[in-house]
Amino acid sequence: VCFLGDSRNVIENDFSNLSLSAREQRELYEAASKIQTAFRKYVERREKREKAAAVRIQNYYRKYRRKRMNKA
């Protein structure tokens, strides 16, 4: 019978035996760097698109308000 405490020790022992070579660490770092770069670019594009949408909405509202004020 395996109790929770016993299984935790087994998992901890398995993780403690893991080690990465210098090459594996470099590959992992490069992969993480590429993921971070891609995510930052995604966020930048999203923010740019949101800003453009906000500007468009503001322009339409200003145009609407001008037309309405000219009628009055």
Short description:
The protein is mostly helical and 72 residues long. The protein has two helices and no strands.
Tell me what the structure shows:
This protein is 88% helix and 0% strand. It contains 2 helices and no strands. It has helices spanning 4-16, 22-71. The mean pLDDT is 88.
What is the fold's blueprint, element by element?
Layout: H1 4-16, H2 22-71
Task: Describe the structure using short key phrases.
single chain, about 70 residues, 2 helices
Order of helices and strands: HH
Shape: elongated
Main beta sheet: strand number and arrangement? none
- Low-pLDDT runs of 5+ residues are none
Beta-strand proportion: under 5%
Give the fraction of residues assigned to helices.
Answer: over 70%
Structural class category: mainly alpha
Radius of gyration: 28 Å
Average per-residue pLDDT, rounded, comes to 88
Give me the number of helical elements.
Answer: 2
Terminal Cα separation, in Å?
85 Å
Give me the count of strands. 0
